[in-house]
């Protein structure tokens, strides 16, 4: 039986959270629950509220029988509202392990995988309406160019966008193999896997509004965190990491830190680690997903 998801930098995340056994913690990306279970082991009298927007993750969460644990099937862009619904206004630590789980990638029917053919779906939350095929069939060339460039960091984003727009006239995009075939002629030779991974990442980010969700979540984490509480975020691509770094260091996703009349910086967090923590070589050898992970930790001031 394949495991749902192997948690990345488990020990490093735990150290980052610096758990008070009686405190209230939030894991906004439950997935298979690897990090949540470890947090629960450290609680005595404390509480863990976990989020995931995917119903498969909810099924995993239902297996946890622990009175200290609450699961919310919701997008973490609504974290503050759901915490309030559960009687929580302040927390002592929040963990976010961004992106998709191995379970999601390895399920062909979800359309996240570059390895298996599947429908061009890519929704983490199956009840939203936008799918990857809609993005490919309905967005204009300029929008596709922007998505491939910004979210996929494709060097030939404009050419890729043009190819899609030209080829969908003959047959709308429905399957992941259609997409790969359409891009075949413009895919750098010998770098096919990396290229398709970037294309799929770009579509996934657009379908799931990942940048907006992260931005909303970061702002809310500042609002609900107790002084001294820790924000621990693990990201897997540079756009996300830049947003996390900016927010932790400057209190802003874009732009410079604000100062008050006396020149004191106005920001909710101070970074605990200046540079992101990366997985050890031994972990990367065991789990290739850990290779691109960047972990940042900040403390509420
Ligand atoms: C990398 S996995 C987390 C794995 C987890 N830490 C573990 O050890 O099993 C990311 C999970 O976060 C969920 N997710 C991603 N973005 C989300 C969002 N905006 N709101 C709620 N859940 C989200 C995905 O559905 C996925 O299950």
Explain this structure to me?
The protein has 301 residues and is α/β, with parallel strands linked by helices. It is built from 13 helices and 9 strands. A 7-stranded mixed beta sheet has the order 3-2-1-4-5-9-8, sandwiched between helices. Helix 11 (210-224) packs parallel to helix 12 (238-250). The protein is globular, with a radius of gyration of 20 Å. The model has no long low-confidence stretch (mean pLDDT 96). S-adenosylmethionine is lined by residues 5, 7, 29, 31-35, 51-54, 57, 75-77, 97, 99-101, 124, 213. S-adenosylmethionine binds next to helix 2.
Q: Helicity range of the residues?
A: 40-55%
The strands making up the biggest β-sheet line up spatially as: 3-2-1-4-5-9-8
Taking the alpha carbons of the first and last residues, their distance comes to: 45 Å
The number of distinct helices, counting runs of at least 4 residues, comes to 13
Strand portion, in percent? 5-15%
Radius of gyration, CA atoms, in whole angstroms: 20 Å
The topology string of helices and strands comes to HEHEHEHEHHHHHHHEHEEEHE
Enumerate the spans where pLDDT stays under 50 for 5 or more consecutive residues.
Answer: none
What compounds are bound to the protein? S-adenosylmethionine
| Strands, total number | 9
Given helix and strand content, the structural type is alpha/beta
> Which of globular, elongated, flat, extended, rod-shaped describes the shape?
globular
Characterize the biggest β-sheet. Answer: 7 strands, mixed
